[in-house]
Amino acid sequence: MPVTFHTEGILFDLPQKQKHKLWLRAWIEYQGLSCGNLSFIYTSNKYIRSINRKYLNHNYFTDVITFDYREGNTLSGDIFISVEQVRKNAISYGTKEVDEFRRVMIHGVLHLQGYKDDTEEERAGMHQLENDALLLWLEIEGND
Contact 86/80 with Cβ under 8 angstroms? Predict the structure, then answer.
């Protein structure tokens, strides 16, 4: 099933789209799941805040919001990513922008897998899984 990339109200072009699709599908399959329709929508802080207000009753910016349409072991969903917030995160964390985009992308996928980040323990677990997924990216990238 397709992994797609879209924008809403901004100009943004994710590099290496095909490789990102391969990576995301490989991660999902590595977790024993199937990849259904997975849409990444890159947008602005203003847009993601409006989604946060409308659907989650939160009045703040965030880097990612995930809408889960999972059916059984098939992951499907919409993952909204604030390009502005991810760029700010990269500066704050001293990471490359593209690496922070990957981390946020896989963070959204982890939410679709059922992982939460409400407590410090849950956040630490998700961070470790993000690191594992990023290691898989490096393996895929190295196979060029």
Answer: no
Cα-Cα-Cα-Cα torsion 64, 70, 74, 75, nearest 10 degrees, comes to 0
pLDDT digits (tens, 9 = 90+) for 116-132: 999 999 999 999 999 99
Overall pTM surpassing 0.85 (yes/no): yes
Are 80 and 124 spatial neighbours (Cβ–Cβ below 8 Å)?
no
Residue 23 has a CB neighbour count (10 Å cut-off) of: 23
Of 112, 107, 103, whose CA–CA distance to 33 is shortest?
112
Summarised one tens digit per residue, pLDDT across range 74-86 is 999 999 999 999 9
> Span 3-142: which CATH code?
3.40.390.30
Q: Is 19 exposed, middle or buried (0-12, 13-18, 19+ CB in 10 A)?
A: middle
Domain spans of the chain?
3-142
Number of Cα atoms under 13 Å in the Cβ half of residue 134: 15
